[in-house]
Amino acid sequence: MNILVTGGAGFIGGNFMHYMVNKYENDKIICVDKLTYCGNLETLAPISNRKNYKFIKADITDRNTIYQIFEENKIDIVVNFAAESHVDRSVENPEIFIITNVIGTQVLMDACRKYGIKRFHQVSTDEVYGDLPLDRVDLFFTENTPIRASSPYSASKASADLLVMSYYRTYQLPVSISRCSNNYGPYHFPEKLIPLMISRALHNEKLPVYGNGLNVRDWLYVEDHCTAIDLIIRNSKVGEIYNIGGHNEKTNIEVVKTILKILEKDESLIEYVKDRPGHDLRYAIDASKIEKDLNWKPKYTFDIGIKKTIEWYLNNKTWWEHILSGEYKNYFKKMYEKKYCSSNE
Ligand code: NAD
Ligand code: DAU
Question: Domain of 77: which CATH number?
């Protein structure tokens, strides 16, 4: 089979590329990625000389190029990870989120209709459900929870989900969607909470915690997300939506303190800063549908996953130090200057 993985040079897509190239020697795993600020060929370097691996630099919104890729590669399955993925950036500049996350998904599905495929899988997010109250720990997102996105990022992902289901109903395109909670693990771009805190703590820099640090996220080790998607594209019925999560709910401050403890760093590095506008309070996934239908279970608890992640960052400093030394410096200054200034007012 020829499997097209869009956004395969990013965090989750990159881990999925490694997983698939190593697991399915007889399938061809083709990565299409625009290599935006967070797409990184160094992530794919360990698998780049494998026979079943191919990389094509392309933008999923570029219809002609995408059609040409489908024509030349006889694609069986598409797994669409390609996206603008950072909530804070979507608050600053929503437009690129609509272009990539909505139009890009549409172009890919049009290509699927034109050339024919066995499955189009959309990698979505639990953020399409909005948030849950902090004082109702009995509530979880199910696949039937209404869409109620909060940020321009999650609204763009929710729009794409609606479009995917419309292509299923209208054109019978064989689609599936997964909505996963927060991932962490190797190759995570250091603008997101866990890699940002690890990389800054290792440099003894201040750790910016938004608001009071009590917002809750449900963390899943990235390899567990990869196994879930693999099961869905091979074994699920078409037209299905699956939530993915591992019941590892933590407040942000708990996560940051755990990282500091493992790194043997002082909690005085923590600095509370201005909150994210529209900040979602709590995410919590009910994953019983995928557990029951596809027999999926996460392998890693947060305690084990976070230690493995920190170990990876300690052993792969070149990967993230390259990122920190580039354009990222300007990003951090611009994004966090405002937060620090406002918190000191
Ligand atoms: P990421 O930002 O690390 O990677 C995104 C990748 O997409 C990059 O390699 C980038 O170069 C590529 N890309 C961006 N625009 C493109 C375009 N127009 N054409 C081709 N490639 C393009 O993102 P991630 O955290 O790995 O997330 C991957 C997917 O999973 C996203 O769709 C995201 O919404 C979803 N998701 C992420 C999480 C999470 O915790 N990170 C959780 C649930 C779902
Ligand atoms: O739930 C899935 C989503 O998880 C994905 O769809 C998104 O692509 C992914 O980025 C992630 O979104 P979050 O907004 O939850 O992740 P982020 O790492 O940006 O933030 C996690 C929490 O930590 C959130 O409550 C905000 C907080 N935070 C984040 C940063 C970057 C801080 O307190 N300080 C920070 O510097």
Answer: 3.40.50.720
